[in-house]
Design goal:
Number of helices: 3
Shape: globular
Distance between the termini: 22 Å
Largest sheet: 6 strands, antiparallel
Low-confidence stretches: none
């Protein structure tokens, strides 16, 4: 069985703190990443925290992109989840890295919807 989706967990380190603390710039970065990936944006919610930081979710037809920022640590955590093999995750990652001026990026990939164990805890709440 092939996977239903790919979930990329992206940690961006040594970013520009001022960008991470500007919710409009954070939203623009996520929207530009979706555009670069050829995703279809459907709606979004973004929030500016006080005294610092921003979070947002961009719902796309192919699933979602999200971001949470910690300017005081020059760190951003992004999720890119897609159920479409045609999305260009590398292009989205490049946009986010540039937008946040990240010096180091760590990406973990999780394949969703594939059972690796016949004991998948169905109905157990686990």
């Amino acid at each position: 069985m092939s996977e239903i989706g790919r979930h990329l967990l992206v940690d961006l380190y040594e970013c520009d703190a001022d960008t991470l603390n500007d919710v409009a710039l954070v939203e623009r970065a996520l929207r530009d990443a979706a555009l670069a990936a050829h995703a279809t944006a459907l709606g979004a919610v973004f929030h500016q925290f006080v005294p610092q930081g921003a979070s947002g979710v961009l719902l796309v037809a192919e699933s979602h992109l999200s971001v949470h920022t910690w300017p005081e640590h020059r760190f951003a955590a992004c999720d890119l989840f897609t159920c479409s093999p045609s999305l260009d995750a590398d292009a989205a990652l490049a946009v986010l890295r540039r937008a946040f001026a990240s010096e180091r990026v760590v990406v973990r990939e999780i394949l969703r919807g594939i059972s690796l164990d016949s004991r998948d805890h169905q109905g157990t709440g686990l």
